[in-house]
Amino acid sequence: MWGNFQKLLDTVKLSLRLRTERHQLISSNLANVDTPGYRRKDLPFEKIMQSYITQEKSLKTTHPKHFKMKERTLDDLIKSYQPETLGTPNNVSLEEEMASLTENQLLYESTLQSLAKELERLKEIITEGGR
Amino acid sequence: MNLLKAGRIAQSGLLAQRVRLNVTASNIANAQVTRTLEGGPYKAKNVILQAVPLSETEPALQQVRVKAIKDDPSPFKEVYDPGHPDADERGIVRYPNVDVITEMVELLSASRAYEANLAVLSTTKSMFLRTLELMK
Where does the Flagellar basal body rod protein N-terminal domain start and stop, copy by copy (chain B) (predicted)? Predict the structure, then answer.
C-alpha cells in the first residue's frame, strides 16, 4: 500500500530536483548571454528520468565483495554543449534559453500540481478511513 | 535552497547589464566631446564581462561579473575644421572614437539581456511561490 505512494513521491522528488537544477543552469546561461567565450550548459532531463525509471532492471550484487556500480552524480550528467558556433565564441541563444526557461517552469509547476493532488488523495484516505 | 541560487545568478546578470547600459549611455553622451579632464578627446569605453562560478562545489553554475571597463584603443576621428577652438595647427580637430551606431546596437542588446534576466527572476519567484502553496 505505502509502496505505491513511496514510489510516486520518490519520482516526483527526483523530477523536481532535476527541474530546479535545470532552472539554475538556464539562468546561468542567460546571465552570461553576452560573456565572451561562455559555453551553454544543460541537463538531459529525459535521459536521467529514463535511467531512474529503468533502474530496477540494472545489475544486482549477490556478494558483499562484488563491485558496486558507480553512481553517477548530477554534475557528471550536466554536460557542456558544444554545437557549432555562429561567428561568436559564445554559444548561448537568447530565444532558445527563454523557450527552455518557460518550458521548464511549466513542467516544474505541473509536477508540483501532481504532487499536490497525490497529497490530497493521501489526506482523504487518512480522514475517510478513520471514520 | 536551489531556487535562491537561480535568483542570485539572475541578479548578477541584471547588475552586469546595467553597467553595460550606463557605459553605453556615457559613450553616446560624450560622442562629440573634444576636451576631457585627462586632456584630449573622450575615449570610448568597453565593458568586459566574465563568467565566474557561483560556488566551488558547483562549477557548472556561473554568474556573470564585470571584469573591467577598458578604453577602446581604436584611433580618434579626425575632422578638418580650422575654426574649431580645439583644432591643431593643421586645422584638424580630433573627435572621440565613439561609433554611435555600434553604441545603439550595444544599448539594445544590453536592454534585451536585462529583460531576459528579469524574466528569469519572475519565473523563479513564481516557481518558489507555487512550491510554498504545497504547504497549505
Answer: 8-34
Our count of domains for chain B comes to: 1
Distance, in Å, from the CA atom of B84 to the CA atom of B8, rounded to the nearest integer, reads: 50
- Residue A76: pLDDT band (50, 70, 90) is low
Q: Does B5 touch chain A (CB under 8 A)?
A: yes
- The parent domain of residue B95 ranges over 3-135
What CA–CA distance (Å, rounded) separates A101 from A98? 5
- By CA distance, what is B106's nearest residue in A? A34
Contact A16, A116 (CB under 8 A): no
Asked if B3 and A20 come within 8 Å (Cβ–Cβ), the reply is yes
Cell of B72: 577602446
Q: Which of A17, A28, A30 sits opposite B116 (nearest CB)?
A: A30
Q: What is the DSSP string of B33-57?
A: ----TTSSS---EEEEEEEEESSSS
Please determine, for residue A55, whether its predicted confidence score (pLDDT) is greater than 80.
no
Instruction: Give the predicted TM-score (pTM) of the model.
Output: 0.78
Instruction: Please name which of B69, B58, B6 lies closest in space to residue A29, comparing C-alpha atoms.
Output: B6
Where does residue B37 rank: exposed (0-12), middle (13-18), buried (19+ CB within 10 A)?
A: exposed
End-to-end alpha carbon distance in chain B: 20
ipTM computed for the complex: 0.79
Residue among B10, B49, B51 whose CB faces A27 most closely: B10
